[in-house]
Amino acid sequence: DTGVSQDPRHKITKRGQNVTFRCDPISEHNRLYWYRQTLGQGPEFLTYFQNEAQLEKSRLLSDRFSAERPKGSFSTLEIQRTEQGDSAMYLCASSLNQGNTEAFFGQGTRLTVV
Amino acid sequence: GENVEQHPSTLSVQEGDSAVIKCTYSDSASNYFPWYKQELGKGPQLIIDIRSNVGEKKDQRIAVTLNKTAKHFSLHITETQPEDSAVYFCAAFRYSSASKIIFGSGTRLSIRP
User: How far apart are CA A102 and CA A43, in angstroms?
Assistant: First the structure.
């Protein structure tokens, strides 16, 4: 296992289009997080799964955003009707939920909305 | 709401000197404090962490200190090297049944040769 994997690494889309990103966490990690990071800022929390259950969603996550983790393994983050303000790095992280709380991040998906 | 403040936002030190980055947190129930290093175009990489039952932790040239009473924690890098140049983020976390990691706004550390 080489760590958290995100796909694609880069995505350029036209305003109004839908995009979907995928995250494959570290094997057996049952917690999975999505964060968004804009230039010069720290990662901002979007949502969090424990196994397949989505336990928390940020107010940043408008109704255009949806995340799923159907089998408790990989997760997808979809943005509908993209806006220029959605341009950012989307980061995924995973961790165990058994006292070992280290969260490991993927390389991120950089979204540019033109 | 929960908040983590980080200072300074930029830091430039001479190679070989020490660098210190400071953070404060608002959620008194936070009990886990990781530090991440992020290089350009990459995701954050965990470099060291500290739990609330200890006041200090060291790993080679990197050390973290925690003052729970004041809700302060700091990252100390000694004998800085060019490869230490990066953006560093502090974070706070409450490992309860469901909790998110709250990040500071980051410190861009530059090491002058």
Answer: 16
Distance (Å, whole) CA B85 – CA B69: 31
Identify the band that residue B19 occupies on the pLDDT scale cut at 50, 70 and 90: very high
**For residue B83, how far is the Cα from the chain centroid?**
17
- Of all residues in chain A, what percent carry a pLDDT higher than 90? 75
| A25 close contact with B: CB closer than 8 A | no
Q: Which string of b and e fits B73-110 if b means at least 16 CB within 10 Å?
A: bbbbbeebeeebbbbbbbbbbbbeeebbbbbbbbbebe
**A7 contact residues in B (CB cutoff 8 A):** none
Interface of B with A in 63-102 (CB under 8 A): 89, 93, 95, 98, 100-102
What does the alpha-carbon distance between residue A58 and residue A61 come to, in Å, rounded to a whole number?
5
Task: Give the other-Cβ count within 10 Å of A69's Cβ.
Answer: 23
Identity of the amino acid at A104: F
For the stretch B52-61, pLDDT in tens is 888 999 999 9
Report pLDDT digits (tens) over A3-50: 999 999 999 999 999 999 999 999 989 999 999 999 888 999 999 999
Does residue A1 have a pLDDT over 60?
no
